[in-house]
């Protein structure tokens, strides 16, 4: 079986397992709207689930969204349009469930040790990620930012310190995949229900992260939200939960 066909088979296999297990694992990750698990092949290396595009060759996913807030206290970098938009910089036009599935299809593994509660001091686990947010700036030129560039820490009067972002994966509670239920995708304030979190200790405090107004475009500006697999072995070793407690 060719590599591209193998990837498509894997996507179909995972999708089939998820949709077939309505009373077991799948149903716990499905929203009440019965979100589809269909994975569509667009080309040899490009696939799509919902609004999430998957580039298997370069190991990244791409999600459409828009600027939701330009100032104020925040707890999330990104939520779905059904999420906590009163405290999220970006509204992503995608289901959290599809983002989770897309990351799985890149071969990434979510953390198996969810933090105990929102704002918990312990760092979340999961495979490491890189995130970039881009939009068209002046003269229609594309500008790109790391997540930390969009966040301002009023405590030290600087942008957020560089963080290790991880595929934390969200909890399943009472038979529900909580990221889908709450629309929580990328947390700034540590959240066991978010799909993605960071490992910095600053994530245990919900009082000091505000939007960095200096770089924000107008409200509703379309953005591309790109999540890539982190291949740097140094980062992988640094964030590994296998070393926890050693």
Brief characterization of the structure:
This protein is of the alpha+beta class and 246 residues long.
Explain the overall architecture:
- The chain is α+β, with helices and mostly antiparallel strands and 246 residues long.
- The protein has one domain (60-237).
- It is 18% helix and 28% strand.
- The chain contains five helices and 17 strands.
- The protein has helices at 3-20, 25-29, 96-105, 178-182, 233-239; strands at residues 40-41, 46-49, 52-55, 60-67, 76-80, 88-92, 128-136, 142-145, 151-153, 158-159, 165-166, 172-173, 176-177, 184-187, 197-198, 209-211, 222-229.
- Strands 1, 2, 3, 4, 5, 6, 7, 8, 11, 14, 15 and 17 form a twelve-stranded mixed beta sheet that branches. It has a three-stranded antiparallel beta sheet with strand order 10-9-16, with no helix packed on it.
- Strand 9 and strand 10 (158-159) form a beta hairpin.
- The longest helix is centred in the first third of the chain and has 18 residues, at 3-20.
- The chain is globular.
- It starts with a helix and ends in a 7-residue tail after the last helix.
- Residues 1-13 and 15-32 have low confidence and may be disordered.
